[in-house]
Specification:
By secondary structure, this protein is mostly beta strands. It contains two helices and 18 strands. It has a single domain, classed as Jelly Rolls. Strands 2, 4, 5, 8, 13, 14, 15 and 17 form an eight-stranded antiparallel sheet that branches. A hairpin with a 2-residue loop joins strand 4 (about 50-55) and strand 5 (about 55-60). Mean pLDDT is about 90; it is low at about 1-15.
């Protein structure tokens, strides 16, 4: 056994010195969907204008008064504290609001709620308004004064389908510029802390853009559906999702595809 251990260590050392990096171990999580090119009809359930196309989920086309929702088809079972970690990539294109080409609407949201057929209203409702027993993390690109939006480019935490967010933060860069962006959402139900991160690369930011104390045991049941919503109003925008990673328990360092490789846990 000692000789075998030494030979393994020597082999690893020689591989590293030769520039050969050992294969990265894959971490099992609840759902790991790096793209929607394969098996999309078995893992995604769509409502409204949503459809799976060109390697992603197109939530809305750049047309007026649309709503959409799309969910991971299998229900997830959350812990007793309702903790979770999520990461996804998204893109917003074809923005237009009257004569302005940089002020599209209305945005998209990551949502957890109990009904796979649920969808909300168009426009400022971002496809989640009036969905009960839900939490939605909106990536909002239109300032609606009636919803207390701080600016047109912000994140918000909304409960039970109410577009008036309980907490908001301005995003320090433009998210509807046609580029693919990244978002991380982590909830530690043991200390009731929800954190949101947004970046233009897949490097997970050390500091959260928005951190808020909230007790989700009062809002979420143990079995839920995870997905996305979006909406347009008189202003236009195309909303797309290109990957989704979700774990039905909080990961201390969150999900980070820049340093870890993930696979879906077998069911």
């Amino acid at each position: 056994m000692i000789a075998f251990t030494r030979s393994v260590c020597l082999g690893v050392a020689l591989a590293i010195s030769a520039g050969i990096v050992p294969a990265q171990a894959q971490v099992e999580i609840t759902a790991a969907i790096p793209d929607f090119n394969e098996g999309e009809d078995t893992v995604v359930y769509t409502n409204g204008d949503a459809t799976v196309a060109q390697g992603g989920i197109r939530l809305t086309q750049p047309r007026g008064t649309l709503y959409a929702s799309a969910y991971y088809k299998l229900p997830v079972t959350l812990s007793s504290h309702r903790s979770f970690s999520a990461y996804f990539t998204f893109r917003m294109t074809n923005t237009q609001c009257g004569t302005k080409t940089d002020a599209g609407a209305d945005g998209l949201a990551f949502i957890i709620q109990p009904d796979i057929t649920a969808f909300g209203t168009h426009g400022g409702g971002i496809g989640y308004e009036k969905i009960p027993n839900s939490i939605a993390i909106e990536l909002d690109t239109h300032q609606n004064p009636g919803f207390n939006d701080p600016v047109k480019n912000h994140v918000g935490i909304s409960l039970n389908g109410d577009p008036k967010s309980v907490a908001v933060a301005e995003i320090p860069f433009t998210i509807n510029n046609g580029e693919i962006h990244h978002a991380w959402i982590d909830y530690d139900g043991k200390d009731d802390t929800l954190e949101v991160r947004v970046a233009s690369s897949n490097a997970r930011p050390a500091a959260a853009l928005l951190s808020h104390k909230i007790d989700l045991e009062k809002t979420l049941a143990s079995e839920e559906f995870v997905g996305f919503t979006a909406g347009t109003g008189t202003c236009l925008q195309q909303h797309e999702i290109f990957s989704m990673f979700f774990n039905a328990e909080n990961l201390p360092r969150g999900l980070d595809t820049s340093v870890e490789s993930y696979i879906s846990a077998s069911r």
